[in-house]
Amino acid sequence: MQSNAQQPRSSATIISAAQQAFPSLHIRAIQYPTKANKAVMVLGDNNDILVRLRANKVYLDAASADVLATQKAADLPIVARIKDTADPLHFGNFAGLGTKLIWALFGFLMTFICVAGLYMNWLRVKRKQPSLLKWFGIMGAVSMLLIGYSLLLTIQTFSVRQAPATVYSPVLGITQSNN
């Protein structure tokens, strides 16, 4: 049986320590470590514009609730800031339901345009060559083989569940091995 010193601290203790280290952080998530001697991550918002949840965080020692590091979106280098801006722009979740509906509408319009273009091309070619195989052609067959290979490679890649050494923050350069 482990001693109390090695047991993770309660959520209230973790939240209190994170609030002291980063007072303006509006806590949205706490990620407890899955292995001993790993940090607890407290994630939240800091009223920064267009950043994902992981841009602002506090790293705490799980056993003592001591602050190991803090990361603020405002202090991130430009490349890291752009990476943390990608999700809100991509998913449209930076301005509420209205923005998500606009993003969905444009997504449906792009899909409709692609399908309409394929259909118009099929109608044009069908007058000359009624066979789907001839319309598809050699490049279509090569494309389908490449798509099949990429799907197979993707399935193989994501079925392997090996995690590299846990990186606390690439910006701060704090790492810890999985030993």
Topology diagram in text:
Blueprint lengths: L10 H11 L4 E6 L7 E7 L10 E6 L5 E5 L6 H14 L5 H32 L3 H28 L6 E4 L4 E3 L3
Antiparallel strand pairs: 1-2, 2-3, 3-4, 5-6
Give structural attributes.
179 residues; alpha+beta; two-stranded antiparallel sheet; 4 helices; 6 strands; 47% helix; 17% strand
Overview of the molecule:
The chain has 179 residues and is of the alpha+beta class. The protein has helices at 11-21, 78-91, 97-128, 132-159; strands at residues 26-31, 39-45, 56-61, 67-71, 166-169, 174-176. The chain has a 4-stranded antiparallel beta sheet, with helices on one face. Strands 5-6 form a two-stranded antiparallel sheet. A hairpin with a 4-residue loop joins strand 5 and strand 6. The relative contact order is 0.10. Residues 1-5 have low confidence and may be disordered.
Structural class: alpha+beta
Counting DSSP H or I runs of 4 or more residues, the number of helices is: 4
What is the first-to-last residue Cα distance? 20 Å
State which percent range the strand residues make up: 15-25%
Number of strands: 6
Average pLDDT taken over every residue: 82
The major β-sheet equals:
4 strands, antiparallel
What order do the strands of the largest sheet run in, or round the barrel if closed?
A: 1-2-3-4
Shape: elongated
Low-confidence stretches: 1-5
Estimate percent helicity. 40-55%
N-to-C SSE string, H for helix and E for strand: HEEEEHHHEE
- Rg of Cα set: 24 Å
